[in-house]
Design goal:
homotetramer, 368 residues, 21% helix, 26% strand
């Protein structure tokens, strides 16, 4: 067995937005991963993990199929990715972060130092299609694991290995990136906290990973869009904004400033706040397009409530018209039902399957 | 066996819009039907059929299940609905028109004169839920029968027995009515013919059935909306308007007036014509609401192309806001794929199943 | 339109065992059919129907897809098979008997006199695979139509258009024949009547069709096996024999002779009667093989109870060993459950689908 | 956090055959597990693992759902089963051995020393139904993980978490035990090695676990059947015996004695060897019944080839008759097809789903 420090390796591929040329390499997002092609009978990965309260989870993929899903505990450690295999065969191995960047845990991080192997690393081929998924807890796969009776917010019940992002990526053999945060929205989080808005973080490497540790890892720096231009961007946002309309006002504990998306007394949305929301959608589309010149942008909505269907569709339409940007589309996803729900009252695997099927149909039209 | 003239019977139910108190009773629409509960061992129906070139088809339902589908040939005739049955049991029998009102065949009509039975007719219970479907060839079930290689426009390949309307009605045990015409749109037909617009016929009994014969049957008269108020109206329109954008100008052979929904040179919709289309959608919603005070209105779109998603969603949204009419919703239906297509390049049974599932989820929210 | 008497036509194909060179041609069995390839815009069939109490039903297939299912009433009549079609195209049309030969109705018969057409008849191609199905009510499709609450024994609820025979034939594009009778078994019917045994009729054209009328049609004559040698024979028998074990003794009303398959007091099968049953299975296999030299023989069992699994499997095994006939196999079919049951407590379409899938897997091994 | 040595705990349940009152407790079999109900926010398990070449894998189940699957590496270690949970809730946790007893690795073992918890252990309820599964690689779940192109025999691709045993146990909420060994048969292994016969090991605790270490753990001792009497025993054996007929003779490297199940030149089974095989089946049934007085015994066969269907069915039938033991049944399972195959040319998850459905139907009849 021989140790290979990642910084000295030439044949590997990092998936997901990360800090360029930084070692050990941070895996910031759900779906962030390191991929290798290697022969030999045995392979270990050398990682470093820390967190205050919310641990990251990982999955291991062998020749394209998930073979392991595991909780990562604190510390630097070696994890065996395979052993006892036919040494001659070249294996494709992906070690993938299963859980989202944890905005509520400033210490949470996962770093890849290197590999220990008794084989030789071979080049990793480029995939033909690149997809970026931007979303909230749905895209973070909250509720895709665990009993449907679970109510505890815990990373055990979260992960992308069974959610629509992986289903779609497998269908097209696509490279994909996720950028998602549970509870966040376009203009505000589920609790009306306006700082929980995805657009504000979109242009950083990983603005969800906070604190000095993550800052040192480069999370807050501007993202280099030029280095990775997706063919398709799926934005699956709006569910938390919709929830916020029914939640109480958010008040900043320090500044006492407040925010609220309002309902009228008759149960309809306040037109001013719908207008604010629509503007946020449009503004976000301009931000996305500015950074992704060629991508087809699909705004998908509907897996957890469909109250903002009109507002989102209308906003995307306005953007499309104003910007004369025809590579934009709105897709309504099937709402989650009693038959398709998972844990934490979130979409289960069946709901993700239904959504993936709708999006696969849509992508097929776009990318052929 | 005893003959019962329909006009003298008290225990039966006519489904579908028809001329009040007219005998023999016309079944104008797909889904129009006569329903009886009857005991005895044998039952025949006495009908009258005529057409110039396009014959109507019918289906027979025994205790809620379809047992027969048949072409109707010209003339007055008796058709056996059942025989050899246990005389004591009360059977629920529906004789249903399978094919749409035929706007292109002025002679086409189907009349019910009466029944021949050796049992007694019992009352037909009211169903709790009433649904009206308004649509085009999709709602007429074009393509739900026949080999996928068929290209002949023929009523054999058309019918509602396997389409989404019947699937939804069965799910909710609902009474339903259809009002649909192949090739027609909101503002114009697939060929840009502006007279092929559904809204213009919505307030008549059956404006699609033309000619002196159908006029005599009362088809062109104003419809009495008060007599039947649906709980839900599903409008599944827009596919032909979308097609018209890509078709040549329509020119009236007599007046030489013309009509065209235009595309821009770059392949986008001309904004003026989108605006005209959106106005037509809004106007239609006002017409529907004027006549149906309590109904939840679902505009469903997407089974055959999705190019007008934004325009329709936006128009429904504008109507909802302008009219302050919250009982309106837009639903995107899954587009038809190679796996779900039927004959005549139209949605097959699988595509209708997918659409029905989406609408069933939607209706469940609305009607509980 | 021109009338074509069948006896003068050269281009057509009769499916199902029938009397050679007899006109009008009898369609004795479920699945018996006349098939033509014809162009022109319109086609009628000229048939003759009679029965005492149990009418036959038919289905119409257009280019391989069922488009109509209808009850046949008494008398000679013309039925329109299609009209209004593109005259140039050659259409493949099958007019098929949907319901079994009716052993309990000596008058029941269905004859084909000819066609009326405005096109030209073209040759009907031979299919590569030939399958014979031998069975009871399951193979007659009893219970595949109608509400699951139905209990009336009526041909309306019976038919092969949705049963496993047609599913299998479609999968392999095979020519198929059925020879089945509701209530009959290998050694006795469900009621212990030993004359209700299929093997006794196997070597006649259609021994189930009794009475002078059917005799005159040639039903009782020896069948000419050489004229049609199947590649596969599926025997789906044993369910009624199993039922007979639990039914009272049968007593001949005239001769007073009696028959009974006995259970022991402890609820097990009486070994002597199991031995008699097994012998009947073996004897039948010898009869089948004598007449079908090359066919693979699949004995399938289990859709309605599985009590005779051991006896049948053992008997087929004994036959295989004794006869050194390796082209024999036993297949257990999934029993019908609450989820898959149809009307009359018989297998519904879902149960037939499950059975068909098992048999399709089996046939694929046999015929490649 | 407090450490609890297993030997001092009263509230836990060991699943699977194991040595009574031995600590640390060995988990010998696939499906062997330790189950606890515990509150508190965090739980770790203290285990000890060793092997020469083939490592064991484990799965973690939280409130009945699998949340983790992981390779176990050598040494004593603590594995976190959950953390960060609501302390008040009582969680049901199962730590399960995923891979079979490894007859080819004398060092391979997995021991449970205890738990580290910050909560209190509560009693584990008895389940109403107990099922024992006896089998080969199918029951060991070989091929249920990994890409279908995999050919490497490696525990990564093996496991019961996706196989029919767990599917059935979940359906009935049953306690279950597995006793299975890849490559073994009733009379001989796939390679004709007659020592690879399951019956010879059935009455020991875990005769597959060899070597001095496992001997010290009690693996070779007689099993105490009285302590756990199953309601149903599913024997899924015969596939390797069938394979042996097509493999060369096995020769003992030491004694030079040989064994071979022979085919005739014409490709049929040699009757003497079929007789030997049938006797082995019958003998095994007597062994099973001797030790399990009340269990319903289901012999299931067919997922990997069906050549011995007759022999097995006949043998079970003979046993049933000879022993007058009516609580025996033969079930044919659907053979694995191209659509349902997994890795290593073994049944994939879909094939296991189909087999489980057939067995679930069967068990439902037996256990209601």
């Amino acid at each position: 067995m021989k140790y290979h420090e990642l910084r000295e390796m030439s044949e590997y591929k990092l998936h997901g937005r990360t800090s360029p040329n930084r070692y050990p390499a941070p895996l910031f997002f759900n779906g962030s991963a390191v991929e290798v092609n290697v022969n030999g009978s045995e392979l270990w990965i050398d990682i470093e993990v820390d967190f205050a309260g919310i641990e990251p989870w990982a999955t291991i993929w062998f020749n394209g199929e998930m073979v392991s899903r595991l909780m990562l505990t604190k510390g630097r450690k070696k994890i065996c990715l395979f052993r006892g295999m036919n040494p001659a065969a070249i294996k494709n191995i992906v070690f993938m972060r299963e859980t989202q960047a944890m905005a509520d845990d400033e210490l949470c991080h996962l770093l890849v130092h290197g590999f220990e192997a008794n084989g030789i690393f071979h080049s990793v081929a480029e995939r033909k299609l690149k997809i970026e998924f931007v979303g909230d807890s749905i895209t973070s796969g909250e509720g895709t694991y665990g009993n449907i009776t679970e109510t505890d917010w815990n990373p055990m019940f979260m992960g992308i290995s069974l959610n629509y992002t992986v289903m779609i990526a497998k269908e097209f053999d696509a490279e994909f990136r996720c950028l998602s945060q549970s509870g966040w929205g376009v203009i505000a989080g589920w609790d009306n906290n306006p700082r929980r808005n995805i657009p504000a973080k979109y242009e950083t490497v990983c603005g969800f990973a906070k604190g000095s540790v993550n800052e040192a890892l480069g999370a807050a720096k501007p993202h280099d869009f030029a280095a990775w231009q997706p063919d398709v961007i799926v934005v699956n946002l709006g569910s938390n904004d919709n929830g916020a309309f029914e939640q109480p006002e958010w008040i900043d504990p320090v500044t006492k400033e407040s925010f609220k998306l309002r309902m009228n007394n008759n149960g309809t949305y306040h037109p001013d706040d719908i207008a604010r929301f629509e503007k946020a959608v449009i503004d976000f589309l301009y931000i996305i397009r500015k950074n992704n010149k060629k991508a087809y942008i699909i705004w998908a909505y509907g897996m957890v409530g469909q109250g903002l269907t009109f507002a989102i569709s209308n906003a995307v339409y306005k953007y499309q018209t104003d910007a004369n940007d025809m590579k934009t589309v709105f897709v309504q996803l099937p709402d989650t039902t009693n038959e398709t729900v998972g844990s934490l009252l979130h979409p289960g695997e069946k709901s993700h399957r239904r959504a993936a099927d709708v999006l696969i149909d849509c992508l097929r039209k776009v990318v052929g």
